[in-house]
Amino acid sequence: MSSRPLSLTVAAAVAVIFGLLTIVSGGRAIFGGVDMGAVVPFVLWFNFGAGFAYVLAGIGLWRGGAWAPMLALGIAVATALIFAAFLWHVLTDGAWEARTMGAMILRTGIWTAIAALALRGKKPT
Predict the structure, then answer these.
(1) Phi and psi of 67, rounded to 5°?
(2) pLDDT in tens, 88-109
(3) Helix H or strand E segment including 26
(4) What are the TM regions of this chain, as residue ranges (predicted)?
């Protein structure tokens, strides 16, 4: 039986599922010709690429990889920085969709929580 805390198991599963959903939705928007309205290209491309990192981080957390908590923290920080850049875009009258605001709030919150759980569950080296 694994000594991994249940919260970390849930965080790992959320990361993988969220990552796969992000890859599919981002891929549809970028490559599938789906009209997503006033997308902000740097946010769309970041989120699509980050989806692969989400999956990798989730697998690493699941397997107990020593590198996984730092990857989760890196994802959280990078997402917060992209969110800040998106807010700047909004404040300077760039075109945007309300769902992007909600998605960035959600992504930043989820990855902040995953990183906190991962760092708390990190085994001392």
Answers:
(1) -80, -20
(2) 999 999 999 999 999 999 999 9
(3) helix 6-31
(4) 42-62, 69-88, 100-119
